Amino acid sequence: MVDFGSAPKDRWVCPNDRQLALRAKLRTGWSVKTQQLQRYGQTDAALDEAEQEVILQVIRRAEMLEVTEQERVG
After folding, report:
1. Helix/strand/coil for 9
2. Among 10, 30, 52, 69, which has the minimal tally of Cβ within 10 Å of its Cβ?
3. d(CA 72, CA 74)
4. What is the radius of gyration, based on Cα positions, of the chain?
């Protein structure tokens, strides 16, 4: 671990892209409290089919780009 001088050891560090991609696939958020904050004072509103399809298209496109990038890299 890198020592930042007098900074505390539990200092917040921005997650890297790999961690963010994994969190997106696992449907977790930026922090362990993300789900608590999203649910505070709100009721769950279901997405309609059009919204779900748009989300699925984005996920498919991202997965396709990831496969293409892996093939390109090696």
Report:
1. coil
2. 10
3. 6
4. 18
Q: Are 63 and 56 in contact (CB under 8 A)?
A: no
- Contact call for residues 23 and 30 (beta carbons, < 8 A): yes
- Kindly state the tokens that stand for 1: 């671990």
* Dihedral (CA of 48, 49, 52, 58) sign: negative
- How close are the terminal C-alpha atoms of the chain, in Å? 30
Q: What is the pLDDT of residues 1-58, one digit of tens each?
A: 444 445 445 556 677 788 777 777 776 666 655 555 555 555 667 888 999 999 999 9
On the CB side of 63, CA atoms within 13 Å amount to 8
Tokens of 26: 């696992």
Q: What is the per-residue pLDDT for 1?
A: 44
Q: What's the whole-model pTM score?
A: 0.41
